[in-house]
Amino acid sequence: METTEIKSKIRDIIAGMFDVKPSEVSDTKSFKDMAKYDSMRALEFLAKLENEFDVMIEPDFLQKMQSVEQSVQVIEELLRAK
Amino acid sequence: MPNESLTPELNVTEYLKQRFPFLMVDRVLSWEKGGKLRAVKSVSVNEFYFQGHFPQYPMFPGVLTVECFAQTAAILVRLTELTEGSAQEDLLDVIGTILEFRFLKPVFPGDRLETEVSITKTVGKNRIVDGKCFVSGEEVAGGKLVFGKIQRP
């Protein structure tokens, strides 16, 4: 899967979770700076990524997935390891 | 802490904060430490919501199947926390997100609704709980919920 496609899917997930347009989701802004992002939303994000990309993501990986860019990197690594 | 082999003796009200008329678990059937928990609710035609859902055609409301699932999950979370030594009396378990849930067959008065759940992920005090509901061994519903905590008032 191409990086742009992964990024687009992650943006869609974040947009759906926070009720904003995908174009309004920053690639670099930390999720922690989003008003409604908390540990419960982080877990929801993890589950939706697993479902979308058919990968298993250990909760510890959340530390490395604090933005769209960072999440793309982790998903690419996981997809390569499949 | 109950012995996992003695689950029929486990009093659900010791592990759930819900009370009449909103207890949706009658009994825990089995529990594996660190694994699955299976519980049952016997659906009685005597329950008040059958007057309106639906007149002449009583059918167990789907939202209450979700509630059965959630309460079964809450017992598992509670038992897990007691095992881990992380239980806090001032926090209530709440559904954070219904990640997915599907209804395969309707549930009717007289059915024995069994729900089996397991915790698949934990982040802090939040957990993803996966599970299925059965009637007479046949799957009638199932899904995946994010469980979180809120401060008890």
In short:
Chain A has 82 residues and is an all-alpha fold.
What does this structure look like?
The complex is a heterodimer of chains A (82) and B (153). With 82 residues, chain A is mostly helical. Chain A has one domain (3-81): Orthogonal Bundle (Non-ribosomal Peptide Synthetase Peptidyl Carrier Protein, Chain A). Helices cover 55% and strands 0% of the residues of chain A. Chain A has helices at 3-18, 39-53, 68-81. Chain B contains 1 helix and 6 strands, in the order E-E-H-E-E-E-E. Chain B has one helix spanning 62-84; strands at residues 27-31, 37-42, 91-103, 112-123, 126-135, 138-151. In chain B, strands 1-2-4-5-6-3 form a 6-stranded antiparallel β-sheet, with helices on one face. The longest helix of chain B has 23 residues, at 62-84. Chain B is globular. In chain B, 29% of the residues are buried. Chain A binds chain B through residues 39-44, 46-48, 51, 59, 62, and chain B through 96-97, 99-100, 121-128, 144, 146, 148.
Please state the overall shape of chain B, judged from the principal axes of the Cα atoms: globular
The main sheet of chain A comes to: none
Radius of gyration from the alpha-carbon trace of chain B, in angstroms: 15 Å
Number of helices of chain A: 3
Q: What is the global morphology of chain A?
A: globular
Query: How large is the radius of gyration of chain A?
Result: 12 Å
- Name of the CATH class of chain A: Mainly Alpha
- The CATH homologous superfamily of chain A corresponds to ACP-like
CATH architecture of chain A: Orthogonal Bundle
- Class based on secondary structure composition and strand pairing of chain B: alpha+beta
Q: Quick one: how many beta strands of chain B?
A: 6
